[in-house]
Batch of 2 targets.
Target 1
Amino acid sequence: MSSAATPALAHALRAAAGLLARLLGVFTLGFLLLELAPGTPADTMISPDLDPAQREKLLAKFGYDRPLAVRYALALRALLGADLGVSFVSEQPVTQVIGAHLPHTLLLSGAALAVIFPLGVALGVLSAVARGHAIERTLSVVALVAWGLPSFWLALMLQLGASRVGWPTSGRVDPVMHDLMGPWEQLLDVATHLALPTVSLAIGGTASVARYVRASMLEALSQDYIRTARARGLSELRVVGRHALRNALLPVITLVGLSLPALVGGSVLVEVIYGWPGMGKLTFDAIQAQDQPVLLGCLLLFAAVVSLANGLADALYAVADPRVRARG
Amino acid sequence: MSTGCAALPLARSPRRALGRALLALLATLSACTCQDPAPAPAAGPGGPPTAEEGPRGTLVLGAASDVGALNPVVAQLVEDQELINAVSWPPLQAGFDCRITYTPRHFTSWTFDEDAKGLRVTLDPAITWADGTPVTSADILFTYELIADPAVASPRAGYLDRFEPGYPKADGDHAVIFRFTEPFSRITQLSVAGMIPVPAHALRDADRATLRGNPLSLRPLSSGPWAVTAHEPGERTVLEPNPAFTGPAEARPKLRRIIKRVIPDYATRLLELKAGRIDYMDSLALEDAVALRRDHPELRVITRRGRTSDYLTWNLSNPRFSDVRVRTALAHAADIDGIVRALFTDPEGNAHATRAVSTITPALCGAHADDIQPLAHDLARARALLDEAGWRDADGDGVRDKDGVPLRFKLSTNAGNKRREEVALLLQAAFKRVGAVADIELVEPRSLFDRLRGRDYDAMIAGWSAGLFIDPSNMWHSDTPTKTYAFNFPGYRNPAVDALIDKGLSEPDDEVAAEAWKEMQRLIYADQPYMFLWWLDEPIAVHRRFQDTQIDVLSRLGELHAWWVPADEVKYPR
């Protein structure tokens, strides 16, 4: 092994150990929090007016007739064997349950992120460049209002407006006609149903990115190297686009990293309002039903993605900024 | 053996204990015989589709949650039971006319043993599963085998307690013999025997600990008019006519598709209903039902009555409530009719709740005590009763007290139920007028039944979903040294009521049993262990283009194979 590879390997091992420690922490915390919640999984699964003996049998099936420590140890052992277990509610493997919901959240969150970053950067740059003009004041006010709007309220308002013009207000596709459509019609159907939840999620995020980029751009535009570039007679487009924006975008890398977990986590309220069968809704339902295996599976997935996204953001930052590379 | 195969009324039950389990079974069997009052149009463009024409039209149901399991052994949700009825050819057809009735379906006939401890049922040999395998006695035996298996943890395991060891047993491929440990009424025997079977040949090797997760739980092998052709988790379930259905021709579906859409949010569901993107929605809020009636003539809003009630239960072990005069006084203080007017009456003045006087639903017309006069709102009478019971405001602080104990208590209800929270506030104000202080406590919903069962409360507002099978023993029978009745939340004890329950459950004559139930209700109402509040209407909306819909006290989606759409009102052309 070369001497250059050793620090990199050590770094990778430290990162992997950190990831495992975080996953274990999340698993343990999630397990204990569910234990502290009132009631049991059986309470949401069987009618309360059935014989209590049936409730006890169901709890025994879930292992609730064993002490907490034993259940924790068994769950941990299964996890170490890469077994996330079986959902209490559907009795399907947790990986299968998550696998059925994850693609829908990836689609929705991906669409939202695809709107948020390009549009947010464009509006942020425009706002910074047009400093002092009416357009900047207008954009600032709009961004502030949009940033402050709760996404669920926005979702409800959009839904109300859309229902008046006959736009689909719920679901991922047309439940009746989708199967009978041609491929292009199906694509259009998906896009039509994707529009409202995407806009609901994207408006606040776009405003946030725009405000971030504006502040970063204003700082960049006030730097000496920008003055120098202008003094050299470079066009304003080149000054802004090549010199200022490149530096202003560095903090956005962090934002991208922080946004990636949302890609798998989804949004509970928007998914519930639009009947979107994603991870947010799945997690919410698992909490409601105390479906411990599914909830722990979701939490582990989120924790892993957060850790990986942070690592990715660090790596990208180092690639983009020579000063970070120099510091090691 | 004596023979009997006519419609059997249910108003008696010779032994207690099966009631709870039967409530669930009745749901699985619920298939109403009531017809729309209007005569069915003749076949043709405006009439139901002919056999040559084939099914037409699509029904889109709006549902709050996804299908859980379409396996009758493990199904928990009423909504699932309704789809199970559609994809199965049930052993018996349940009907309701003041009481449950049964007529033959997959069970073509039955004979009862003379000792009232058993019956032999004969199966229709023509009925097959969708793969062509006949539905036989082996399937019925296998179904009970699954129910008995602790690994399955079936909610219907309580049925088995009453079977003699070794029963049920097959008598050839198309007959089954059931024997019970003690005599039961005929209707009870049929109810227990009438479990919808599952396919033994398809599930024999299934992992029983994860039966709900078996693919056949979501796309079951059908024996009925409908078959599940698609299930997309959290999105929709699609039913289409079962091409292999071998039941009678008149039971073949008249619709081409039924799509159950999952729309978790109530407001979104309502929007979709108004926009015509779903055709059916239940559990409507009263104000929405009123608005739909007014603004959406294309929808028919049907009121389902007598299945849901609210009550306030007193903890009788609390010394404040041990005296019937206190409980009666607080009932007089509460303006229950005023609350009905305030919360459940629409702008046209129609009340959508009726005063309750017992836990037996008024839908059971023969057994409900219609003669009980609800306690009137009478503050003077309330104050006089409290004075008489020794509760007076001795220290002048505005709160009555007795022996230094103030008439102050917690009034609890489940958090998140806006209706009950409002009721709690109104009752709190009413009690204050007679010198009683109720401190409202909102209980985490999952803890509600634990608190009630543990009698860990002072006063609690809760509700019942009423069964159509009368067995009040669990609710009202006194505890014995060996048994605590799980649903006797107040801790009520009345030997006269116990005797009436025993009599009602063992009495073979319906009329005599009904009198016992009525007298029991009168005694309980006089004792006021509950402040009985009201029976709530359940509004359901369905698009008018659907004909022969069967939405009633038994079922919200009865006899789906009979629903149809006139040819000129088919909405989805393909």
Note: Chain A has a mean pLDDT of 85.
Target 2
Amino acid sequence: MASSETKILIGAPYLPHMADALVSTVADFIEVNGWPDASPAFASLAQKCPVAINPPIEAASELTEQDCRRLAAALEQIAQPLWVSLPVSCSQTADGRIRLPQRFAPLYTPEFLKVVIENTCKLRTTLPSPVQLENVASFFSIDYPQISAPEFLRSAAEQCQCNMTMNVSAVWLQAQYAGKNPQEYAAEFALDRVTTLRVSGIAEDRDLQASVAAPARVDDSVLSLAAWIAHHSPALRAISYDAVTQNTSRETVLQSLQAIREAVA
Amino acid sequence: MKYSPPIDRDRLDAVLRFVADARARTRQAAEIEIAAEEATRAGRYARYLARGFYLTTLEQGFRLSNGLAARVGRDVTQITDSALFENFLQDCFLGSLDAARRVGDFAVSYLGEIPNAPAWFRDLLIYERATFLQLATTDPGPKTYVPRRGNSAVCIQFGWQMAELVRRVKEGASVADQLKGDSTLFFARSPESKLVVAEVDAATAAIFRAVNGLRNTQKIAEAADTTPEVTNAYLDAMAKIGAVVLP
């Protein structure tokens, strides 16, 4: 962590039915997953509370002018914009006809590294807020020469001179899928560039026959890994709870934020 | 400078197809090189994505009829646990119009069986099936050289005043027989992936129905009994909401 005097901010997901209550009690900022909605309630919230955005823009996918304009307009609505996190993923085909409903890792190759760098640098130079790159997990692999995900993200972050949002659940899940030690795997990332951590609940899925991020109370193993990463990330300034869906209950969100706050303390 | 084709982009597209299309995973010669064990994992991942996606879109699309069905212990998301859905997972193409139609039909069939349903319930199911088609069809369809309909766009004539009926059902208010009467609604998925439902007049409906993916603007105008200038204006407006796709 930066120093014992640096206050780590706690972030809550933007869930319209409880955002106001969270900000006035347990959260220091709100994190919007997707495009901010056009409701008066959000407009009001955006004037009184810091907001980070995780837009539905993928660093390894095609970046359109329309996306850039929409993101810039969204940030203009926010009085205290914090940062924009871009997942290093590419979940749709070039022709747009296939679009997976979850973030999907690109091939970690020089060709995609170039795409990620171009997109990130373009957003970095046009947006008023910092742009951060976020890791994603892969459940299976293909026979094709690639560099490792941590190395890919490190190269991209260094060449774009940007920081990282570390999705701790994705790190933990990736370690599980690959049979690795989570701390050793986390240590492969550029922890000196990690400024934000995201944590979530975890559940077993019957189709995957493995664990997956889920709309549940933040998982203790994930939180424990987050604490370890926080200890090794000198630039860390925030930890947020990812509710995974909009339907996550108020109780689950509150319990998770409380658990994060206790872990940070 | 020598042009290098994006080889990795093509390869990633093949991987995405492998996940989305169950048939791509069962072909003898796969488009991608993948070890047998990893292919099995990819299949599990595909099932996980598809089940979660259709569960979520069923919940969103059939919210109102599902609320009424809940009174007799039915929940549309139970479909995703059925043997029928297991069969569907064996050959579905995630996000395709065909897959959305199949799951939408499962839902209509399942919810349509509730006893003592009100007279307008069938129309509500048709309304929500059309809504579901927009939410569950992420494939925008192929490029086009003449105007065509949006991939999942539909124009439906109802026997009830659906806009008002839906508003009342949402509010839990009673639906009286005075709401009987024809209304025609568009359902489309906008280029920004937003659901669009709008009541339309006869002229708009006529032009939409004349768009069949084969006619050019002139022929559409003839079929809809209007002028090319008027047709162009309507087509532009419809393209903005995803009801039609222009070349």
Note: Chain B touches chain A through 38 residues (CB under 8 Å).
